[in-house]
TrEMBL record:
Coiled coil: none
IDEAL domain: residues covered: 23-59
Stretches that traverse the bilayer: none
Protein name listed in UniProt: IDEAL domain-containing protein
Lineage, broadest ranks: Bacteria, Bacillati, Bacillota, Bacilli, Bacillales
Pfam families for the chain: IDEAL
C-alpha cells in the first residue's frame, strides 16, 4: 500500500521536530557544561573550596547525562 502525501509530510514534520529537539538538548547541555567550567575557574581563582567541590560534583552529573543524549 502506498503512503499518502499527508502521511509522508507528517513523518517529515515529526523527523524535523525530533532533530530540532536533539539540537536544542545538545546546545543546552553544552551551555550547562560551559557555565560550570567557568564557575570552577572562578572558584579556583577565589580559592573557594566548597564552591569548587559543589561545581565539580555538578559537572560529573552533567557529564554522565551526556552519555544518554
Amino acid at each position: 500500500m502506498k503512503k499518502s502525501s499527508i502521511d509522508t509530510s507528517q513523518q517529515l514534520v515529526n523527523d524535523n521536530f525530533d532533530y530540532a529537539q536533539m539540537v536544542l538538548d545538545k546546545a543546552l547541555h553544552d551551555f550547562q557544561i560551559d557555565r560550570i567550567l567557568k564557575g570552577i575557574d572562578q572558584s579556583l581563582e577565589n580559592r573557594n573550596k566548597d564552591e569548587f567541590l559543589r561545581l565539580t560534583d555538578e559537572l560529573k552529573i552533567i557529564r554522565k547525562q551526556s552519555f544518554r543524549l
